């Protein structure tokens, strides 16, 4: 069975059908892209997969478990984590605390220990602090550990959001336009980073992105969405030459 299997998924908002009969299969270890013009429904799909929206029809199977309709925290606990198109850090918390928040779902101490500050609480917090610093070092953010997240440069905020998602120990990482707002050099570095974390953490990655150089350079397989419907699926080379894809992008060259 695929790690993620989406069967006939649809979502309507009133009379508007944002996603129609979506079918996606993602195998463990794959790096898959989801692309499409603005308004095609890409972020709606991420919101469906992660429990932000409840499907109108269809089912979402993650490791053969139907996760349709689960709350976001339940989906995260099962092993699916995401970033957002618009960065959603805790701006008034420092960098290390942003990462530690994601570790807390796996905390080894009880609420009672936290309230009364038992030794298990301090031990657990120390372990999360150490793990958080390890993640920050991987992302080159260790020098920012005590800085407020809102004060980081834009590119570093993007990296921090990915680090926080990884702190949840996901099996499937969903990246929603991680290169948005980045300059070409930052995008190039992000491409290398995505490859690196996929190998280091043995992750499966589903990526939404408008930057075609990133998508074509890093993804092994791509789904193309238009008006809430999959119109093409294949390798980057197949997608670049697909007439339906070219038409959906208003005749612009893809890649």
Task: Describe the structure in your own words.
With 255 residues, the chain is of the alpha/beta class. The chain has a domain at 1-70 and 207-255: P-loop containing nucleotide triphosphate hydrolases (Rossmann fold). Helices cover 39% and strands 23% of the residues. It has ten helices and ten strands. The protein has helices spanning 42-49, 72-78, 95-103, 111-116, 119-138, 154-167, 184-200, 212-218, 236-240, 243-248, and strands spanning 4-13, 16-26, 31-35, 57-62, 65-66, 80-82, 172-176, 204-208, 221-226, 229-234. A hairpin with a 2-residue loop joins strand 9 and strand 10 (229-234). Helix 3 packs across helix 5 and helix 3 runs parallel beside helix 6. It is globular, with a radius of gyration of 19 Å. The model has no long low-confidence stretch (mean pLDDT 90).
Keywords for this structure?
four-stranded antiparallel β-sheet, 10 helices, Rossmann fold, six-stranded mixed β-sheet, 10 strands, alpha/beta, 255 residues
């Amino acid at each position: 069975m695929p790690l993620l299997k989406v069967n006939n998924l649809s979502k309507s908002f009133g009379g508007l059908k944002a996603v129609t009969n979506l079918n996606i299969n993602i195998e463990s270890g794959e790096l898959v892209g989801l692309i499409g013009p603005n308004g095609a429904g890409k972020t709606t799909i991420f919101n469906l997969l992660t429990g932000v929206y409840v499907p109108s029809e269809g089912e979402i199977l993650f490791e053969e478990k139907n996760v349709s309709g689960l709350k976001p925290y339940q989906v995260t606990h099962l092993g699916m984590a995401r970033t957002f198109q618009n960065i959603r850090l805790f701006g008034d918390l420092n960098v290390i605390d942003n990462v530690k928040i994601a570790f807390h779902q796996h905390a080894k101490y009880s609420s009672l220990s936290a309230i009364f500050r038992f030794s298990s609480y301090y031990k657990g917090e120390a372990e999360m602090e150490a793990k958080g610093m390890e993640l920050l070092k991987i992302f080159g953010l260790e020098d920012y550990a005590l800085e407020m997240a809102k004060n980081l440069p834009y590119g570093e905020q993007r990296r921090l959001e990915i680090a926080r998602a990884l702190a949840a120990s996901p099996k499937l990482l969903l990246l929603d336009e991680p290169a948005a707002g980045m300059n070409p050099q930052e995008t190039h570095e992000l491409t290398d980073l995505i490859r690196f974390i996929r190998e280091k953490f043995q992750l499966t990655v589903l990526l939404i992105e408008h930057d075609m150089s990133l998508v074509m350079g890093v993804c092994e397989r791509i789904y193309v969405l238009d008006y809430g419907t999959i119109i093409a699926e294949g390798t980057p080379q197949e997608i670049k030459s697909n007439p339906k894809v070219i038409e959906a992008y208003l005749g612009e060259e893809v890649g």
